[in-house]
Amino acid sequence: MATDQTEKDFLDIRDLKIGVTVREPGEPPRDITIVHGVSTTLEKGKVLGLIGESGAGKSTIGLSSLAYGRGGVEITGGEVFINGRDILKLSRGELNNLRGREVCYVSQSAAAGFNPAHRLIDQVIEASLEHGLMTKAEAEDRARYLFEALSLPDPDTIGERYPHQVSGGQLQRVMTAMALCPKPDLIVFDEPTTALDVTTQIDVLAAIKNAIDVTGVAALYITHDLAVVAQVADEIMVLRNGEMVEHGPTSQIIEAPQEDYTRALVSVRSIVHPEQAPTDTPLISMENIVAGYGNLVTVLDDVSVDLHPGQTLAVVGESGSGKSTLARVLTGLLPARSGQITYEGRTLTNAQKDRPLEDLRQIQMIYQMADTAMNPRQTIGTIIGRPIEFYFGIKGAELKKRIGEMLEKIELPAEMASRYPAELSGGQKQRVCIARALAAEPKVIICDEVTSALDPLVADGILKLLLDLQKRENVAYMFITHDLATVKAIADSIAVMHLGKLARYGTKEMVLSPPFDDYTDLLLSSVPEMKLGWLENVIATRKMESAGN
Amino acid sequence: MSPVLKLIAQRISLGILLIFAVSILIFAGTQILPGDVAESILGQSATPENLANLRAELGLNEPALSRYFSWLGGIMVGDLGTALTSGTSISDAIGARLGNTLFLAAVAAMISVPIAILLGLLAVRYKDRWPDKVISATTLASISLPEFFIGYLLILVFGVKLGWFPTVATVFPEMSLGARLNAVMLPALTLTLVVLAHMMRMTRAAILNVMQSAYIETAELKGMTSFKIIWKHALPNAISPVVNVVMLNLAYLIVGVVVVEVIFVYPGMGQYLVDHVAKRDVPVVQACGLVFAAIFIGLNLLADIISILSNPRLRHPK
C-alpha cells in the first residue's frame, strides 16, 4: 500500500499523463500528450463527475482506472492506485482480474456495447462467472434483483431477450446492471445517457442514481452535460484540453464556480432572441401532410405548419417523432403521400426531381454531421463555390471573390478556402456547411440537428451566427432539434411532434406557456436543469411516463 | 409465417428457379457446339446416309424445344438419359461416381474446415506476431502451388518414400471404411492444402472485422481472456462470412477435383466428365454439368440459410 494513502481513498490517481501516437500517411509518427498530469482521489461510495468538452480527456481518464487505452492511446506517466496497488504496473493476467471484478465500465452506447449474438442475462452475469465470484444461479438472482432496482419492466424475464429486443433506454439500464453484477468497488460511467432522448434520459438517470445509492458503489461519471452530472455526483472535476480546471463539491461548482471556464459552462445558452410575430402571408405552408416509407409505414400523419419569411420554426420531438421526415417532405426528397406545400402563394411540386432549379435553390439544408456532409477530397473553397457556380453560373475571379465574402459571413479567415475539411474543427466545419447553404441565397434553410454533435460552447457560437445571418439575409429557418434549450433560445414559432403528429403548435410564447398537454409537459420537464435536487423533484411530479420506459 | 421461414422459403424457391435456368443454359450451350453427336459417333465412316439414319434414331431431328423438354422430363424422374458411346444409363454411372466424389470431398472437408477455422482464430489471437505470419505464409504458399504439383509431391513423400498411403486411390464398392479412408488420404490431403488458405484467411479477416466492435471492448473490460473473447464474442458474429467461404470451398471440393482425380486415378465425377468430353458424348456432359450446377447452387443455398439462422434479429424478431 502506498505510504500516504488514507484508508478511505480507495481510488488515487496521481499525476496521470496520457499520450497518443498519431500516424498520418507520409509523415513520421508523432506523439501527442492528451492528458497533462491530472490527480484526484475518490472515497468508497462517492460519485465523482468528470466534465468537459470533447478532447478534454475525460473518457481517457475514466478508462485509465481500468488501465485501458482506447485505440492508440497509451498511459505514459503517473500512477493509478486502486485498493492500494498501482494498476498501471499489473501484468495482463492481473489486469483481467481487476477488470470486471473491482472496476466495471458502462459505455455511451449500450446498443453497440452489447453483443447482438447473446441473450442479455448471459452477458450481464458473464464477468461474475468469469472471475468465479458466484455460481450461475446466484449471479442470475443478483441480475434479476438489479433489473428490479433499475426499474426495468419484467425484471424476471427481460434477461431472456436479445439486445435488439429492448429499447435504447432499457439497454442502458441493463448495461448498468451488468456493471453492478460482480459487486465492483468502482464503476466508470462514460456518457451513459448522451445517446438517449431527453425524456428517456431522466428515467435512466434516476435509475442509475438509485442503483448507486442502493449498492453503495463508487463511480466516475463522465459527461459533457453539467446539468446531468449535477444530479448524480458528489464532487465534480472540470477538465479542459487534458488539464484540470476546477475540482470541488457539486454544490460549489454549480452555485459558486471559481474559474471563468466553469462559469461559461454553467451559464451556457445565454442567447436571448425576442420572438417575432407571424406575418399575414407565410412563406411556406405545409398543409395536411401525410408521408411515410413504403406503403405500410406512416411517419407523418396530417401535419400542417407555416413558415414565415425571416423567422424560425423550431420542430421538436424525440427520435422517431417524424421531425426529420417533415424536412425530407419539404425538400421533396420524400414526396408526401397526400397534402400540399405552398410556396409564396403557389403550389410546390411534391417530388424533388420534378421541381425547377429555381425552386430547389430556394430551399437549402444543413445537416447534423458536418463531417459526412462534405466531400473530404474537396477544398473548402470548392465546397462553398459549388452552389454559386451551379445556381448562378459564376466562375473565375468573381467566384473567388464570392467565396471570400461567404467565408467572411461565417467569421472564418479567407485563407480557409484552400484547406480541406479534415483540417477544420467541428464548429468550423459546421460553419462551412452554413456558408454552403447560404451561398445559394435561399429563402429557407432547413437546419437538421445542426448543433447536436457540437460541444455546448461551440454550439452556442453556431446559434449566434445563425441568428445574426437571419437578421441580415432575411432567411427563414426550419430548425429541427430534440434540444429544448436551443428551441427556447432561437424559435419564433414551435411545432412539437409526437409519434408523427403535431402535439402542439403555435408561437413560442403560446407553446411554452401553461396549460400544457401531457406530452409537452413531459418534454419540457425532462430537460435537465442546472439545479441540485432537480431530478428527484421532476420524477415525483411527472404526469406521463416516457416512451422509452 | 415467421420472417425466418419466409426468407428461407424465398431462398429455396430462388435456388430451384436458378437450377432450371442453368439447365436451359447447359442445353443451349451444347446445341451451339459445331457438329453434332451423330457426326462424332460415326467419325471417319460418316456418309450422308449414315448420318441421316443415326440422327433419326437418336431423335436429333426433333425441334430443340421438344428435345429439351423430354430431357427435362427424364431428369424429373431421375433418368439422365443414355450415354451415346456405351449405351448404358447415365444415372447408374453417375450414381456410383458421385458417391465417390462426395466421399473424397467429405474427407477433405472434415480435415480442412476445422483446421482452417482454428488457424484463423490463432492468427487473430496472435495478430501481427510470429504465429500469424507463419500461418499466413505457409497457407499462402500451399495455395500458390498448382494442385498437380502438390499431388505429386505428396505421392513422392508419403507414397513412395514413406510408404504410408497408396499412390493410386483405387476404391471399389466392397471396400471397408478404413481401407477407403486409407485409399483417399493423399488426394484428400492435396485438396486440403488447396482450400485451406482461402478459408483460413477469410476467417481471420471476418473475425478481425468483428473485433473492431464496441462489444469486444465491453468483453475486454470485463477481464475476459483473449481467446474467450474471440471464441465467444467475435466468432458468433462472423459466422455468416465464414460459412459463405466454407461453402464455396466445399463446392470447389466437389466440382473442381478433376485434376486431383486424374492424378490419383480416382473413379469420381471429374474423371467421368473428362472422359466423355473427349468422346463428345453430349448427354453425359449435359448430365454432369447439371449435377455440378445443382451441387454448387445447393451448397450456396445452405450457406445463405445458415447465415439467416445465425442472425439473432431474424431468429428472435421484436
Question: What labels describe this entry?
Answer:
heterodimer, A: about 550 residues, alpha/beta, Rossmann fold, 2 domains, 6-stranded mixed β-sheet, 22 helices, 20 strands, about 35% helix, disordered N terminus, B: about 325 residues, mainly alpha, MetI-like fold, 15 helices, about 0% strand
The radius of gyration computed from the alpha-carbon positions of chain A, rounded to a whole number of angstroms, is 25 Å
Q: Main beta sheet of chain B, described?
A: none
Which strand-content bin applies to the residues of chain A?
15-25%
H/I helix tally of chain B? 15
| Low-pLDDT windows of residues of chain B | none
What does the secondary structure layout of this molecule look like, with pairings?
The complex is a heterodimer of chains A (549) and B (318).
Chain A: E1 9-22, E2 30-43, E3 47-51, H1 58-64, E4 73-82, E5 85-86, H2 92-98, E6 103-106, H3 110-113, H4 120-124, H5 126-130, H6 136-149, H7 168-180, E7 186-190, H8 198-215, E8 218-223, H9 226-232, E9 235-240, E10 243-249, H10 250-255, H11 260-266, E11 284-293, E12 297-307, E13 312-316, H12 323-331, E14 338-343, E15 346-348, H13 357-362, E16 363-366, H14 370-373, H15 380-392, H16 396-409, H17 426-439, E17 444-448, H18 456-473, E18 476-481, H19 484-490, E19 493-498, E20 501-507, H20 508-511, H21 518-526, H22 534-541
Parallel strand pairs in A: 3-8, 3-9, 6-7, 7-8, 13-18, 13-19, 16-17, 17-18
Antiparallel strand pairs in A: 1-2, 1-4, 4-5, 9-10, 11-12, 11-14, 14-15, 19-20
Chain B: H1 3-31, H2 37-42, H3 48-58, H4 64-76, H5 90-125, H6 130-144, H7 147-161, H8 177-210, H9 214-221, H10 226-234, H11 239-255, H12 258-263, H13 269-278, H14 282-310, H15 312-315
Helix pairs in contact in B: 1-14, 5-6, 5-8, 5-10, 5-11, 6-8, 7-8, 8-11, 9-10, 11-14, 13-14
